[in-house]
Recover the amino acids of this structure.
């Protein structure tokens, strides 16, 4: 039991079972909410969260039904549309050989390292450009031009400069991850309420303390949006990165299956990339909730 601050009425604290159920609902609901979505205070109750999660499964279920119908009840050949059983069988085959777990682990490692480096660079450049008009005038045109370069255009250059091992792959993913964070952070910092900044200066905060205690907390939703976009971009750049003399990873599995005509493995790789990408996005959604509780 505790007391409501507004009226003094006793409020029953949730049980440990209730807290665990709520945490599961939060993880599931993070699959459907973006940083620009429902505020914490407007979050639906447990029942509505469950309904939201169930609604999110309707479209995947319809896709599976259409897939089953097209592969089992039509004359579509297997080399164009493998059945769900064939794709599952391909996954079991790779799993029993030990390759599937290795491919997933290698791709996750590349994505997380590239994302972490790119996000740090994007956050630093975004803060610099967003807080300094001189830096914005100096860097924005060049960074805008670099952002427009397609991912595959970097492959030959990185191969020549950095070799064929992990460094060019992680660098390419970092390039893809940096720009969404840079763009969102720079834009958000330009629109921070000037009264907050003036209040911080009135309390004697220097530039670094003003950034970390006033300006960045004020743009937390935008930062999380940038991180989510950066993570999605990291998965997009992964396939291009694994064009660089790879012998492992989901991108390699995709390309190798194309060369060998294994349509079942192509479908498997695409499904795994989609599931892993959405799962990692949901994890950032949990981090978003924690940040908004602290600074929202």
């Amino acid at each position: 039991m505790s007391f409501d601050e507004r009226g003094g009425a006793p409020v029953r604290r949730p049980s440990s079972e209730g807290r665990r159920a709520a945490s599961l609902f939060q993880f599931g609901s993070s699959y459907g909410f973006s940083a620009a979505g429902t505020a914490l205070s407007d979050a639906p109750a447990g029942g509505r969260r469950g309904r939201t999660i169930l609604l999110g499964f309707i479209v995947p279920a319809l896709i599976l039904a259409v897939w089953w119908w097209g592969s089992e009840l039509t004359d579509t050949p297997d080399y164009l549309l493998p059945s769900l059983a064939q794709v599952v069988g391909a996954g079991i085959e790779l799993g029993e050989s030990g390759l599937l777990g290795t491919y997933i682990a290698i791709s996750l490692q590349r994505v997380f390292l590239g994302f972490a480096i790119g996000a740090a660079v994007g956050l630093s450049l975004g803060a610099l450009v967003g807080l300094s008009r001189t830096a914005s005038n100096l860097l924005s045109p060049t960074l805008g031009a670099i952002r427009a370069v397609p991912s595959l255009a970097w492959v030959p250059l990185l191969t020549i400069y950095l070799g064929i091992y992990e460094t060019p792959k992680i660098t390419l993913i970092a390039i893809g991850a940096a720009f969404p964070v840079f763009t969102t952070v720079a834009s958000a910092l330009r629109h921070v309420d000037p009264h907050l900044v003036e209040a911080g200066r009135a309390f004697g905060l220097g530039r670094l303390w003003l950034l970390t205690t006033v300006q960045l907390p004020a743009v937390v939703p935008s930062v999380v949006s940038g991180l989510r976009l950066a993570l999605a971009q990291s998965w997009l750049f992964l396939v291009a990165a694994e064009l660089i003399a790879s012998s492992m990873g989901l991108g390699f599995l995709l390309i190798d299956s194309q060369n060998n005509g294994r349509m079942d493995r192509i479908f498997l790789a695409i499904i795994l990339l989609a599931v892993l990408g959405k799962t990692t996005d949901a994890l950032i959604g949990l981090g978003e909730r924690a940040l908004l509780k602290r600074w929202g």
